[in-house]
Write a structure and sequence with these properties.
Layout: E1 3-7, E2 11-12, E3 18-25, E4 34-41, E5 48-54, E6 59-61, E7 69-74, E8 79-84, E9 93-101, E10 108-109, E11 113-117
Parallel strand pairs: 2-11
Antiparallel strand pairs: 1-3, 3-8, 4-5, 4-9, 5-6, 7-8, 9-10, 9-11
Length: 119
């Protein structure tokens, strides 16, 4: 059973960088052909895909967030990390990490973590 757990600060100040880590258990983030995503849901809105890091280590980002996003991984800890720079209150959301196999919908999700951007 694959489990994902998000961790990181719940409050970030405007213009700073949001940093979240997803710790994976029950499966390796280097296993072919899985893709490890970050997804968020702002209050009162739908899910927004942020990007993923592939089993190969290659990242891919949503075009709308690409200029501010970086996703990396630590294979020794079986973790992957999201960094979102220059945050504004519009980046306030519940942030989820998830796993997908190929082009299929995500099959395993973390429980989500609330991040609020406020001074």
């Amino acid at each position: 059973q694959v489990q994902l757990q998000e961790s990181g600060p719940g409050l970030v100040k405007p213009s700073q960088t949001l940093s979240l880590t997803c710790t994976v258990s029950g499966g390796s983030i280097t296993t072919s052909f899985y893709y490890w995503s970050w997804i968020r849901q702002p209050p009162g809105k739908g899910l927004e895909w942020i990007g993923y890091i592939a089993y190969s280590g290659n990242p891919y980002y949503s075009p709308s967030l690409k200029s501010r996003t970086s996703i990396s991984r630590d294979t020794s800890k079986n973790q992957f990390t999201l960094q979102l720079s220059s945050v504004t209150p519009e980046d306030t959301a519940v942030y989820y990490c998830a796993r997908a196999a190929g082009a299929t919908p995500a099959d395993y999700w973390g429980q989500g973590t609330q991040v609020t951007v406020s001074s």
